[in-house]
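Ligand-bound model needed. flavin mononucleotide.
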Amino acid sequence: MQKYPSLTELLAIEFPVIMAPMFLVSNKEMLVAGMKAGVMATFPSLNYRKEGELEALLDELNAIKANSPKGSYGINLITQKSNPLYLKHLKICADKKVPFYITSLGSPKEVVAAAKSYGAKVFCDVTNIAHAQKCYENNCDGFIAVGQGAGGHAGPNPLQVLVPSLKKHFPDKPVIAAGGIVTGSGLLSVCVLGADGASIGTRFITSKECMVNDAYKQAILNAGMDDIVMTTKLSGTPCTIIDTAEARKMGYTQSWFERFMSNNKQTRKWFKMLVQIRGMKRLEESVLPNNYKRLWCAGKSVELIEDILSCEEIIARLKEEYRMSIEEVRKYN
Ligand SMILES: Cc1cc2nc3c(=O)[nH]c(=O)nc-3n(C[C@H](O)[C@H](O)[C@H](O)COP(=O)(O)O)c2cc1C
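Prediction:
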């Protein structure tokens, strides 16, 4: 028996889907379209690094949210010490009363404390039970189970194991499944596993509102699941990218020296910061309009993506396919 409200009730949204936060990809147009279509539209705070930018966006989103009760918005904070903007961004978000947070790569402690002071919800990206246990002890509101093949920092475990395992260990917390979900049947399948909703990233890169360059969108349309590889060269953490000539040149694994610097107590913090700054720069040179490099982050769901649609159309299709999948399953009962 479920011991918490439904995800739609908990997050004040109409449909149990999160438009996932994507570094350099999520933008205001996507967020507004997602909110209007009734989902939880999220973005990484690191997409807004210039002075005053994040505050201005949050003001706009709060105004839109007040007039668009179907969906909501949330922010993703990288809570690792190697993110120099973490605490500054958290303070801005708490001042602006951001309604929903997703934490990644570290402890959610400070985010939970800030969010609870005004009733916001905090979900944590997790890829295994040990990390989930730490988030649980810090009183998070739920988990995002990041499975194999997800876009970005994919986990090593399949959703078919990770989702039921999280439900078994933490029956009082909602779980959202992330990784490889594009269709309504994909959404239904993770709900059957016990998930309360899905977080979808890669699909929205090929949305009309997304401002990445056309070569990136086209690469997603052309790629199949075997074209997606993992690399630790971009951020230090395993990350999925399209296997271009440039990706092969960069390489997939850190050298022994890079691993040594990342693990050594004295150098860890600064070296990780350095790797992340270099990774951000490499991605910027590939993602933004008028840039020409070819290091493109995407998950295995590229296999199922065949068209460029508006966010509204993507979400409408998802809702319709979800409804049809439920009918399809009923036929066998
Ligand atoms: C281009 C790209 C950038 C991403 N950037 C972030 C990020 O900054 N923070 C984060 O928590 N997750 C990030 N992710 C992961 C997504 O939030 C989400 O977990 C993932 O996209 C779900 O898998 P899917 O792409 O198969 O739908 C990123 C994913 C992609 C594809």
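Residues 20-23, 25, 44, 76, 102, 104, 125, 146, 150-152, 178-181, 199-202, 297-299, 301 surround flavin mononucleotide (CB under 6 Å).
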